[in-house]
Structure formats: structure tokens, C-alpha cells
Design goal:
mainly alpha, 335 residues, 13 helices
């Protein structure tokens, strides 16, 4: 049995020590009981963040804004803050367990994602309606889930544990996708991970077992930058976000790395099926809560159609170079 990584244990002690010391200085702790709904949400959100390419904001953002009546900007800033704890914990678990990741994917997507995060924060977020953005978000990811399901139905689907014959045009492609993913993350507090995960699994045919932990590391870096952006540069981290953050820290510091550990025990196809369930529940849950009107439903249909077309096109594209089998071990679909 693998031991719990020392780096994660040190981070756990540091986080919980600082949290306890700060809590001890407060005279009023009533917010801890008042925010119990947020803590419960993050039990599931942080576990999913650590075990799938979906960040915890994919759970917390719709629940907070639609069920708990929390303003979208507060929910987004909370997402960056809490993921800086939870996803850092998950990343330390992944690295400590020496889980296979794709470093070219991580490096170039992260580079583009940071620029996209800043661009989106200043030039895109002010123009977006939260409800329309959320419907676009869940519809696009559902279209990806359908495409991945269709690919995995092929009995002899071949996947790799690394991008094959990595070249300069691949660097550019990853940077562009990272930039777009960074814009998406600037709106919701997550998105770059699942958006680029689509490219990795559909176009590059990288195994979900490798793409998932890699996307978690990418979102970890993105969320730390996002937290810094809103707390230090923009200074719009509201007291309500801070209360939510304090309430949920003890939850995510345990459940996110637990999700990362469970992920290492999943087969590739089980991980894919787990992702299908998340995407379907996320989509229909948003429809039930939002109760979209006709124009919003048409947006969902158009996004599903456009996304399905995009991912079908990606799945049928042939890369110019033949796979270099020295860079990644071929894996059959049953792995």
C-alpha cells in the first residue's frame, strides 16, 4: 500500500495549523454554522475536483449562485480561494504518489491559461450574463461527454500515456486552448482543466488516467494565480467570500486529496464513466434549477450541436506525424 506523501502531510499540518490559529482569534464563530450548506457542497465538490478534470467550482458555482443565493462574483472568487487549498492538496498527493502526468500538456496549457485568465477577467467577465454563461458551460461539457462516450464505444480504441511526436505546432495548439480555457476560468473559477482535457482525450488520444491528474495540476496553478489576481491586484475579495473560504478549508484539505487517491485506483474506463455521470448530472441539474426560457433552451441546443461538431471534428482529425511508441505506452480500451 502506498504511503501518504510527506509533502501533502506537511501542507495539511501547515494549513490546519494556520486555520486553527486564526479561528482562535475570532470572537464570533457563528458564520461556521451559518455556512453549513457551503461546507456540505464542498465535500462533494472537492472530492470531484481531486478525482476528475472538473474543478470544484463546477459544483460550487451553480449550487452557490442558484440554490444558496450567493452572488456570482462572490462564488467565483470563493472558488479560486478554496481551490488554492483543495487542489494544491490534490496536486501534492498526485506528485507524491508519482502518478503519471503529461508535462508538455501542463506547461504549455498553463502558459496560455494565465494570459487567458487575465484577459477574461478584464475584458470578458463584464460582458457575460451569469445564467447564459452557466448554460453554455454545462452544454459544452455535455457535448464533450457524448463525444468521449462515442469514442470509448469503439472496442479497439487505442490511447497513449503521452502526446506522441510532440512538435512546435502542438505547443501552439496547447497554448491557444489554454488561453481559451483561461477565459472560461475567469468567468466560473474553473474550466481550463475540462476544456483542455477535451483536446487531450479526443484529439491526442491521451488516456483519461494521464489526462485527469495532468488537468488537476493545471487547474491548481490557474486557481492560485486567480486567487492572487482577485485578492492582491483587483482587491475584490469580499468578506462573504472570506467567510465561505474559512468555513470550507477543513473540508477541502482532506476530501480533494482523497479524491486524487481514489482516482489512482480507478480503471481508465471507470474514470470515463464517472466523468459521464458528472457531466449529465451537471447539465440536467442546471436545467432544473435555472428553468431556462425558450431563448436559453435554444442556446443549450445550439451549444450542444456546435460542441458535438467540434469534438467529432477533433476525433476525426489525423495528426501529420505517426505515433512515436517510445514516448508513450499504447493502452487498450479495457485498461
Amino acid at each position: 500500500m502506498r504511503r501518504i506523501p510527506i509533502a501533502y502531510l506537511c501542507f495539511l499540518v501547515l494549513v490546519m495549523g494556520c486555520w486553527l490559529c486564526y479561528i482562535a482569534t475570532l470572537s464570533d464563530l457563528s458564520f461556521l454554522s451559518r455556512r453549513w450548506g457551503a461546507a456540505l457542497t464542498m465535500v462533494f465538490g472537492s472530492f470531484i475536483a481531486g478525482s476528475s478534470p472538473e474543478g470544484s467550482a463546477a459544483i460550487s458555482y451553480p449550487v452557490f449562485t442558484l440554490l444558496l443565493d450567493i452572488k456570482p462574483a462572490i462564488a467565483r472568487n470563493f472558488s479560486f480561494a478554496i481551490q488554492s487549498i483543495g487542489m494544491t492538496s490534490a496536486t501534492l498527493m498526485i506528485l507524491g504518489l508519482r502518478t503519471k502526468v503529461e508535462w508538455n500538456y501542463i506547461v504549455f496549457v498553463t502558459f496560455g491559461g494565465i494570459f487567458g485568465l487575465f484577459f477574461g477577467t478584464y475584458y470578458v467577465v463584464p460582458l457575460i450574463s451569469p445564467v447564459m454563461a452557466k448554460l453554455f458551460f454545462v452544454s459544452l461539457w455535455l457535448s464533450f461527454g457524448i463525444a468521449l462516450w462515442r469514442e470509448n464505444r469503439r472496442p479497439q480504441r487505442i490511447v497513449y500515456d503521452a502526446i506522441q511526436n510532440f512538435q512546435r505546432n502542438d505547443q501552439f495548439r496547447l497554448i491557444v486552448f489554454g488561453f481559451i480555457g483561461g477565459i472560461i476560468s475567469s468567468i466560473f473559477g474553473t474550466g481550463i482543466n475540462i476544456f483542455t482535457f477535451c483536446l487531450m482525450t479526443i484529439y491526442y488520444r491521451v488516456s483519461e488516467k494521464v489526462a485527469t491528474p495532468s488537468s488537476i495540476i493545471i487547474m491548481t496553478i490557474e486557481t492560485i494565480v486567480g486567487f492572487f489576481l482577485h485578492q492582491v491586484i483587483m482587491k475584490d475579495f469580499a468578506p462573504e467570500s472570506f467567510e465561505l473560504w474559512l468555513t470550507c478549508i477543513p473540508v477541502v484539505v482532506f476530501f480533494a486529496p482523497f479524491g486524487a487517491f481514489v482516482m489512482t485506483k480507478m480503471s481508465r474506463l471507470f474514470l470515463a464513466k464517472f466523468l459521464y455521470v458528472i457531466l449529465v448530472v451537471q447539465f440536467f441539474g442546471a436545467l432544473v434549477v435555472i428553468r431556462p426560457n425558450l431563448s436559453q433552451l435554444l442556446l443549450c441546443v445550439a451549444t450542444l450541436a456546435a460542441g458535438s461538431t467540434l469534438f467529432f471534428f477533433l476525433s476525426r482529425m489525423e495528426r501529420k506525424s505517426e505515433p512515436d511508441l517510445t514516448q508513450g505506452v499504447l493502452q487498450e480500451s479495457l485498461n
